[in-house]
């Protein structure tokens, strides 16, 4: 009998291939052969627009899910932060690899470190003319709103492309700084470039995206593939991801919204979670903790707090908008 070779769907970027090789190596350790099947998603092809303008992060995931359901591939490797909050019927996250550092990093050119030094003028003091400040590259509204509020960095411009491309745009002066995920930089071994300076954001304050730093492997629910992937699963990471995705689902967060969630499962079995949603002109933060057995309930409670806090402002805005329409 011919030995089965499991097909793993992946994007073709250097980071995606690196993450897929990590999964393949873990499978090889338990005697399983696999091959990578590269798919070019709509998100990979439309590189000149921010993601939220043509479907959000789901554009990196949906086509893989269709291939799994059709049987063309057995599983797909995702950056968990790119996944929608709800997995489609018939599919499941079969494995989460141990979480890498979930923080964001502001990368600047050595010799142009406007963010270092400790002084307010170095840490992004607000200026009367935002365009006169350092130009920061990111297409994430979550990152942008926290940059503006916490550091007064107002000159933010869209940035697309893979990690090496973004760093090259920084080096050539198109940007004065770029915001990237620490996990991606580390996996590509691009976190110690001698001509660059790296400022790691405190993940407890400058909150990451839900699932940031996590490699998730998606497959059909039930059956041989899910059973196989459970051998690779890291339980702590699984719990943290479930809580963060549960919060996102609870607030019905769209892919383009400035929303963040960061959960940490402690050695004592307590899950501590902090979330953020931008609304009414500022970032609103909420936090809570619960034993592991109540993680889903904690996510639900935090979602309820966010919705309750923002609803009055949103309803007032809807009322004002409606009044203007009537007057017009």
In what range is the share of β-strand residues?
A: 15-25%
- The mean pLDDT is 88
Main pleated sheet: 5 strands, mixed
Largest beta sheet: strand ordering:
2-1-3-10-4
Record field, number of beta strands = 13
**Main CATH class of the largest domain:** Alpha Beta
Count up the helices: 9
> What fold name stands as the CATH topology of the largest domain?
D-Maltodextrin-Binding Protein, domain 2
How much helical structure, as a percent, in the residues?
25-40%
Series of H and E elements: EHEHHEEEEHEHEHEEHHEEEH
- What is the alpha-carbon Rg in Å? 21 Å
Uncertain regions spanning at least 5 consecutive residues: 118-124, 317-328
What distance separates the N and C termini? 75 Å
Overall, the morphology is: globular
Number of domains: 2
CATH homologous superfamily designation of the largest domain: Periplasmic binding protein-like II
**Which CATH architecture of the largest domain would you pick?**
3-Layer(aba) Sandwich
């Amino acid at each position: 009998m011919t030995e089965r070779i499991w097909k793993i769907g992946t994007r073709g970027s250097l980071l995606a291939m690196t993450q897929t090789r990590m999964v393949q190596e873990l499978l090889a350790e338990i005697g399983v052969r696999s091959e990578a099947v590269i798919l070019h998603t709509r998100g990979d092809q439309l590189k000149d627009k921010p993601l939220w303008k043509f479907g959000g992060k789901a554009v990196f995931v949906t086509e893989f899910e269709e291939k799994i359901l059709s049987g063309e591939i057995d599983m797909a490797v995702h950056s968990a932060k790119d996944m929608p909050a709800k997995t489609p019927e018939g599919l499941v996250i079969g494995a989460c690899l141990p979480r890498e550092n979930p923080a964001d990093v502001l990368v600047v050119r050595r010799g142009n470190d406007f963010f270092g030094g400790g002084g307010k003028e170095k840490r992004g003091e607000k200026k009367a003319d935002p365009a006169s400040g350092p130009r920061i590259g990111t297409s994430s509204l979550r990152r942008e709103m926290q940059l503006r509020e916490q550091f007064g960095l107002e000159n933010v411009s869209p940035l697309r492309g893979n990690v090496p491309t973004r760093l090259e745009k920084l080096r050539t002066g198109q940007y004065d700084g770029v915001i990237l995920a620490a996990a991606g930089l580390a996996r590509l071994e691009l976190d110690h470039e001698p001509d660059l300076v790296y400022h790691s954001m405190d993940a407890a304050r400058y909150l990451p995206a839900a699932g940031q730093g996590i490699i998730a492997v998606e497959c059909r629910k039930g059956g041989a593939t899910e059973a196989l992937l459970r051998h690779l699963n890291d339980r702590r990471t699984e719990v943290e991801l479930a809580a963060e995705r549960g919060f996102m689902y609870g607030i019905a967060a769209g892919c383009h919204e400035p929303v963040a969630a960061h959960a940490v499962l402690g050695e004592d079995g307590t899950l501590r979670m902090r979330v953020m949603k931008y609304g009414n002109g500022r970032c609103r933060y909420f936090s809570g903790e619960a034993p592991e057995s109540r993680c889903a309930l904690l996510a639900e409670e935090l979602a309820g707090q966010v919705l309750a806090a923002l609803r009055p402002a949103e309803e007032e805005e809807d009322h004002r908008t409606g009044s203007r329409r009537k007057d017009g």
